[in-house]
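Lab notebook, bench 4. Continuing the backlog of folding jobs that were queued last week. Each job is logged with the same field layout so the records can be merged later without manual cleanup. Today's entry covers Histidine triad nucleotide-binding protein, a 112-residue chain. Filled in by technician R.K.

JOB TYPE: sequence-to-structure
TARGET: Histidine triad nucleotide-binding protein
LENGTH: 112
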Amino acid sequence: MDCLFCKMISGEVPAEVVREGERTLAFRDINPQAPVHVLVIPKEHHPNFASLAADPALLAEVTAEVGRVAEDEGVAESGYRVVFNTGSGAGQTVFHAHAHVLGGRGLNWPPG
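JOB STATUS: finished
OUTPUT FIELD FOLLOWS
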């Protein structure tokens, strides 16, 4: 499989890991859009959010890990945004489900 995130999970491609669970991996985005920009992914390959949502237990693990990342990164109290881009039209560029955890600055709405 030629998936960048799967290669990060296997250690074939380096990542700045901030948390690792049995079924999840959290690492810093290489092109951060906020002072805190961490991606949380399932270790099991799911191409997008819709596929991940078909496994509610794994989705729950990913979202629980999002909360832990926010705590660890110091943005749980001040506020943070969680984004799943699904499909190229929504800006998904790596087709392995991932949650963006963004914080550490004001985040305008609507996002653009």
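OBSERVATION: The two ends are 32 Å apart (CA to CA).
SIGNED: R.K.
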